[in-house]
Write a structure and sequence with these properties.
- The protein is of the alpha+beta class and about 450 residues long.
- The chain contains twelve helices and 18 strands.
- The strands form five sheets. Strands 1, 2, 3, 4, 7, 8, 9, 16 and 17 form a nine-stranded mixed β-sheet that branches.
- β5 and β6 form a beta hairpin.
Length: about 450
């Protein structure tokens, strides 16, 4: 069984961004390096550490918790008497190698002597100011990410086929699926919360929210969610067992208003609701790409089982289909999107029909925290600067490890390359066996 992320340094992600540095600016550009933290939680910690409101921080993308990652963030700075961030020597030209320095103190950043300026460097994360710009950090500034991934616990019979697939990937790439990380909110028993909202099944959406069991939940959390699942609708009993403040508010309200589920949904945090919506969009997008791959592939497909649907991979592309897929950008589902050609339009219509969903349903009126926004995503990806090396695995006795180094544009998943290399032929025993988890 292959293993990744055995150690934090087995999965390294370096954000590559085109930062428009300025001599002066209200936004301090910082390089955030971390391990064991997701981006949002790391910034929340920095917010408390620097005594700076969380809303003053901006980032372009979220980076994995179980990895060594580096990324750019910005922090809004104002006048010295209004904000703990104050730059030093703004008169100098700013670049990544010639940037203003800042003095970090427990209360924030203060002007200080250059030789005393330092970065925040604590266990599992660090923050280093690199310059100024006149706008906050955003996804449009990210060019992509450079990955270094170590895959462990392999035998020669694992490595040889993977190395053979490398050349195919260099030439033809692979489908640019959203990976399993996107589907943490998917409940195998109950489906997608956002689909329930689309169909106005608000009771079912709320039930998913309070009862969905995640793999990382503790035994106590799982038992609690099972209890709520089994007693759903008995609001007095649910209220008696409520733990969080939101559970108490929700079940207390439902006890008095047993059919008003939308009121509770409207109080859910914006960020959580956005994740639910994007997960369902990503699922439908993946399903469309799966059907496109099926329709054009002449060879036996390779498969890797996923959380919310199998990932199907072509083995090779002829020139005609390669040109077609390289030019094909597919929009994520929303009420006003248009597919780029007849094939994708037909397949997309079939998917919506299979799920009993119509395009106008994406225009949700009762839930206002977020909405379905269509954005185009390329259908296939060819990794850049792809290098591979194998050697003895120092952790697992008598096993080998494979080290992959490559670059992917923004929004692409490094783990999808691993799935492509270790996928199995569709007609094998794959469907009868548990998947090797990535």
């Amino acid at each position: 069984m292959l293993k990744i992320k055995v150690k934090p340094e087995d999965f390294i992600v370096e954000e590559i961004a085109d930062i428009p540095f300025q001599k002066n600016g209200n936004y301090v550009v910082c390089l955030l390096k971390k391990e064991g933290w997701n981006t949002v939680d790391a910034i929340k910690r920095l917010s408390k550490r620097l005594n700076v409101p969380f809303s003053n921080f901006s980032y372009g993308g979220k980076k994995d918790k179980h990895a060594l990652t580096s990324q750019y963030i910005t922090v809004t700075q104002h006048a010295h008497n209004q904000h703990p961030f104050t730059s030093y020597r703004k008169d100098k030209v700013i670049s990544p190698t010639n940037s203003p320095r800042f003095l970090f103190t427990p209360g924030g950043l203060e002007e200080g002597k250059r030789e005393k300026a330092t970065e925040i460097c604590e266990e599992h994360y660090s923050l280093h100011p690199v310059g100024l710009m006149d706008r906050p950090m955003g996804p449009d500034l990210i060019k992509g990410n450079r990955f270094t991934i170590t895959i462990r616990n392999l035998i020669e019979d694992d490595i040889k086929p993977a190395l053979h697939e490398i050349d195919k990937v260099r030439n033809d790439g692979y489908p640019n699926y959203f990976d399993d990380q996107r589907f943490g909110s998917f409940d195998p028993r109950q489906g997608f919360l956002a689909e329930r909202i689309l169909k106005k099944h608000y009771n079912g959406a709320l039930k998913i929210y309070f009862t969905h069991i995640r793999p990382e939940d503790s035994k106590e959390e799982k038992d609690h969610k099972r209890f709520l699942f089994e007693n759903w609708g008995n609001w007095q009993v649910c209220l008696e067992q409520a733990k969080s403040r939101f559970e108490k508010e929700a079940f207390g309200y439902l006890k008095k208003n047993p059919k008003d589920f939308t009121m509770i949904l409207q109080k859910m945090p914006h960020e959580e609701m956005s994740l639910f919506f994007s997960a369902y969009q990503s699922y439908l997008w993946n399903e469309l790409l799966r059907r496109i791959v099926k329709s054009i592939s002449k060879d036996t497909l390779k498969v890797y089982r996923g959380t919310a649907g199998d990932y199907l991979f072509y083995q090779r592309l002829d020139d005609e289909h390669k040109e077609y897929l390289e030019k094909l950008d597919i929009p994520t589902p929303a009420s006003n999107i248009r597919m780029s050609d007849a094939l994708t339009e037909i397949l997309y219509s079939e998917i919506l029909k299979d799920h009993a969903v119509r395009p106008p349903m994406f225009n949700i009126r009762k839930i206002r925290q977020t909405f379905f926004r269509g954005s185009e995503r390329r259908s296939i990806i060819i990794p850049g600067e792809l290098l591979v090396d194998s050697s003895e695995d120092e952790i697992y006795q008598n096993k080998r490890k494979l080290i992959l180094k490559f670059f992917l544009p923004r929004g692409c998943y490094g783990t999808m390359l691993i799935k492509r290399l270790f996928s199995q032929a569709q007609d094998g025993q794959y469907h009868e066996e548990p998947n090797r988890v990535i």
